[in-house]
Amino acid sequence: MCIRDRSAVVDRPEYVKVEALNRKGEKIIVEGEELMAVALCHEIDHLDGILYIDKAIPEEELEEIKAQ
User: Fold this and answer.
1) Which residue of 3, 9, 26, 38 has the smallest Cβ count within 10 Å?
2) pLDDT in the model for residue 50
3) Exactly one of 43, 61, 63, 64 is catalytic; which is it?
4) How wide is the angle at C-alpha 49 spanned by C-alphas 42 and 58, nearest 5°?
């Protein structure tokens, strides 16, 4: 599904710690802050079959959050 000329907010953490396997099958831990945390969460969502449109906060809900 293409969403042309549209944008929305996706709530992401500012810090993440990810456990994964490297190419040799060895466990590694990657930590990310700010943009790196957002990127890690975004890519992990893709691996789990979750898309941007699945997490986008509807405009009316976003307005309620801003009003608080």
Assistant:
1) 26
2) 93
3) 43
4) 65
pLDDT digits (tens, 9 = 90+) for 33-60: 999 999 999 999 999 999 888 888 777 6
Q: Which among 30, 50, 34 is positioned nearest to 42, based on CA atoms?
A: 50
Q: Is 30 helix (H, G, I), strand (E, B) or coil?
A: strand
> Can 43 be counted among the known catalytic residues?
yes
Among 47, 51, 58, which residue's Cα sits nearest to residue 2?
51
As a whole number of angstroms, the distance between CA 33 and CA 39 comes to 10
Between the CA of residue 65 and those of 1, 58, 60, 61, what are the distances in Å? 27, 11, 9, 6
Number of neighbours of residue 40 by Cβ within 10 angstroms: 19
Q: Which residues, in sequence order, are CB contacts of 50 under 8 Å at separation 6+?
A: none
